[in-house]
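User: I'm preparing a small set of examples for a lab meeting where we compare how different chains pack in three dimensions. I only have the primary sequence for this one, and I'd like the structure in token form so I can line it up with the others. Please keep the answer compact; I'll paste it straight into my notes.
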Amino acid sequence: MRWDDLRGFGFIQPRTGGGTLFVHISSFPRGGGRPSVGEVLTYAQSSGPDGRPRAVEIARSRRRGTPSGTAIAVSAMVLFAATLAVATFRFATRWGFLAVYLVASLITAAVYSSDKRAAASGSWRVSESTLLVLGLVGGWPGALIAQRALRHKTRKPGFMALFWTTVVVNILCLALVVVYFRA
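Assistant: Understood. Below is the structure token output for the 183-residue chain.
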């Protein structure tokens, strides 16, 4: 696939072979974000005003057997909730941990929402480093919910890689505090 983001069009290579097909951004579902190299797409083939073939009515496909981002997010939340519940009851962890995660998550979700509105209106944005720090200090559950509900930042692989790194670091720090210091 070749894509010119500034001009809003590109060319895709059909799996069945043959020549490339022109595709315009208007052929993608609204709010779905830009296409990426290697992404699996389904489409209908039509002719453009010049008579050349083009892809229209684009739909994004997921490879079979690969979990969706939502499935990964839900799994992470369930695992975290179970770990925190066990830590709270088994190790007599103070309920303050739950309160910290709840408050940090609510603040982080609100900041993501604000950033999403700012992105849509073209106004001042929250820096990615701020979003990552909020997740690192315990707001990542709220960030996960906001990312999925608002469809915000989920199509930025670099950001998501750093985000998941902060999630792992946060959980490891929580585990250290609970196990070694019997908080």
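A couple of notes for your slides: Helices lie at 69-90, 96-121, 128-150, 157-181. The domain at 2-60 is CATH 2.40.50.140 (OB fold (Dihydrolipoamide Acetyltransferase, E2P)).

User: Perfect, thanks.
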